Amino acid sequence: MDARRFLPSVFCGLRSRSRRNIMDDRKRAVQRQFGQRAGAYARSASHRRDADLELLIAHLQAAPSDRALDVATGTGFTAFALRPHVRSVVGADLTRGMLEEARRLTPSGEGFSWVVGDAEALPFADGTFSIVTCRRAPHHFPHVEASVNEMVRVLAPGGRLGIVDQVPPEEAPGYDLMEALEVLRDSSHVQALRPSRWRTLLEECRVALTFAEQVESRQTMEAWLELAGADDARRRAIAAMLRGAPPQALEQIGYEERPEPSFLKRWIVLVGRK
Q1: Closest CA to 230 of 36, 83, 86
Q2: Checking phi first, is residue 253 left (phi over 0); if not, alpha (psi -120 to 50) or beta?
Q3: Known InterPro entries for this protein (predicted)?
Q4: Rounded to whole angstroms, how far apart are CA atoms 122 and 171?
Q5: Where are the domains positioned within the chain?
Q6: Per-residue tens of pLDDT for the chain, all 274 residues
Q7: Closest CA to 105 of 80, 132, 84
Q8: Are 237 and 227 in contact, with CB atoms under 8 Å apart?
Q9: Cα separation of 196 and 191, whole Å?
Q10: 13 in the Ramachandran plot: left (φ > 0), alpha (ψ -120 to 50) or beta?
Q11: Distance CA 196, CA 199 (A)
């Protein structure tokens, strides 16, 4: 079952354009979306501190000698959580507006650097960092495999890679429904990998997995839509999609109508060594 059957209009016309242009357009969509919503993400309590961030920091086993890179740092919350444990942190992001918020929120003291950078072409030499992290961002990457390879490239031998990203249900039809909802909510969403694909991807990139765990929390539809700034048309389309979704798919995403519409947001936390 193809996720695109849930929302055919979203993908209309893509076959007629080159893959390179699609990739460029997706990156521009990310810059527009997060440039407009940078303030909202700076205020997000879930991004500032949540169970996935605590697990990530705990299992990276950071040391005072470590130099860390946080890829797609956004407003800097993962970098801020890393800094007390390492010598220095560089936060890289494609969107200048997000980095401006990160600079504004930066705690007093030294050890932070903020760099405009594309996850698929990181502006650093091979083996520069002993820790590389990327939290809640890979589902926006046009080519996530290339991005992970870049993270591994700039990681020193023996260094630790930590990735957190949202994951849909492993099986259809829940997988298809969750992905279709994500694209309707936020056009900069590319694809959230299944948990099984994340494990094989790290293996392909020669990262030895040392920790993997999924965490979940119930999220109201209103909070989820508000964070992305979803307009009325997107909200109506999502409501219609939910009304027409198979009961099995709704069960797989943990959808509930009462006391208010909500679903289970799931994240995978992965840590490994190069």
Answers
A1: 36
A2: alpha
A3: Methyltransf_11, SAM-dependent_MTases_sf
A4: 33
A5: 18-171+188-219+267-273
A6: 444 344 433 333 333 233 344 457 777 766 676 656 666 665 666 566 779 999 999 999 999 999 999 999 998 999 999 999 999 999 999 988 889 989 988 987 789 999 999 999 999 999 999 999 999 999 999 999 999 999 999 999 999 999 999 999 999 999 999 999 999 999 889 999 999 999 999 999 999 999 999 999 999 999 999 988 889 999 999 999 999 999 999 999 999 999 999 999 999 999 999 9
A7: 80
A8: no
A9: 14
A10: left
A11: 5
Q: For residue 253, what are the contacts with CB-CB under 8 A and spacing of at least 6?
A: 168, 169, 174, 177, 178, 181, 263, 264
Burial class for 264, CB neighbours closer than 10 Å (0-12, 13-18, 19+):
middle
Q: Does domain 18-171+188-219+267-273 sit in CATH 1.10.8.60?
A: no
Write the DSSP string, 1-34. --GGGG-GGGGTTGGGS-HHHHHHHHHHHHHHHH
Distance CA 151, CA 129 (A): 9
Quote the CA–CA distance of 274 and 185 in Å, as a whole number.
35
Give this prediction's pTM.
Answer: 0.85
Which among 266, 271, 143, 274 is positioned nearest to 199, based on CA atoms?
271
Q: At what angle do helices 221-228 and 174-185 cross, to 10 degrees?
A: 40
